[in-house]
Amino acid sequence: MLKADYYSAPTDLALLVFEKLIPADHYLRRLKAALNFAPFRALVADCYAVGLGAPAEDPGRLLNLSLLQFQYDLSDSQVLRQAQVTVAFRFFLDLWLESPLPVPSLLSQFRTRLGVDRFTRVFNEILRQGRAQGLVKDRLRLKDATHLIANIALPSTLRLVAQTREQVLKAAACLAAAEVAAPRVHVEAVRAATADLQEEQRLLARVAHLRALVVWGEHWQRRLRETTAGHPPLVSAEPEAVFSEALELAHKVLNDREPEAKDRLLSLADRDARTGKPGDYYDGYLLDVSLDADSELICAVEVLPANGDEGANAKHLIASEEQAQGNDIVSLSLDRIGYRGDVLAELSDDANGPQLTVYVPPIDWTPPAAELFQPADFLRNEAGTEGRCPGGVRTSTRMRAKRGYGWQFHFRASQCHPCPLRTQCLRPTTRGGRTVIKTDYEAQYRAAQPRAQTAAYRAVRREQPRLERKLAEMIRWHDGRRVR
Q: Can you give the residue range of the structural domain that contains 32?
């Protein structure tokens, strides 16, 4: 449980030591003067029992220890060793000359107890205080992402299938150990029968066995639910939920073996890590960041899988800050990954507030036949059901484009061959009629391209390196390249 008050007055000797040894412009002295740490205890109080247990360590101090860990790239034991001997650390933590320190294991327990949601509350409170002091402005946000390498040893596909099988059997054993006896015998039989085969053949046999195991598990689970329908459950809900999760995981692993699978699970130790390609292929995550261009303070952060949609996540970063702070951001600067019609349309949607001005470098796309009429020369009716070519010919023959971002209109050969503009629309060797794709986002592209020619755009793009420097600082000084 939390104590009513954690403040203890410093001794005169402690004040004298801090005054003599810590410079007035020291980073931790200035940070302590700028931040009010009192609200932090209230933000995390709901993860402590009221009136039960021994008095807890001050959560404000544990949060400050976490801050020192990030700032100076220290482990749990290292930050406490430094807090024991470093005067500036003791001053920042309100530890006087004889104050005791928590044990290192308490820090990991504290982080687990708080979780992502409560740390997000603390992050938003710090940002709110910065806004109240006039540091954070709403003029411009700079958005970019960098890659994080997952801290995992990638198993072979054969090993991954075997680990998945063991998870299913282990979860089933928690429900009814007797039911698992027969599948265990089958596992040993498959292992003995495939011991001398090549790895590809062994994998095929293990995948087939896992499929059969999933069918068995679903049948057994369904039979168990039918037996307990209308009666008190024979087993507790938690083991059954674990078993259901294991079956879902097995389905995921099996689906990943299909040739067209794109979102493949890499490891059971880190089920969210994926493979991405920011140049070279890597396994891990994307660290997506939104930065205030004026104060260079991070205003929103999101960790995506390595194959996550970085462009589409821009809307989530802006919305998360505006929801937490109650502000309206004026403009946003993105790199070229944001030059997509769907992303521009979502960001510029002003249904929920003032319209956001998006600055993004256009992609210079050279058409395959620049001498011919381009899609922009073709028109659609207001309903979008009919296309019209520069010669005035109309067609209602259309189908959705493969990527789902527009309509593909097709003109028949009988319409195109007698057309006087045929040489400006089709190559001489073309036998059929013209096919053209009209995107759903012409208005967004028309707005973004002229904006990229303005002086305001050039001024905004000159500020983009501020975020790149911030990401480089996180990687170089705060071990931001690899997931801990």
A: 12-135
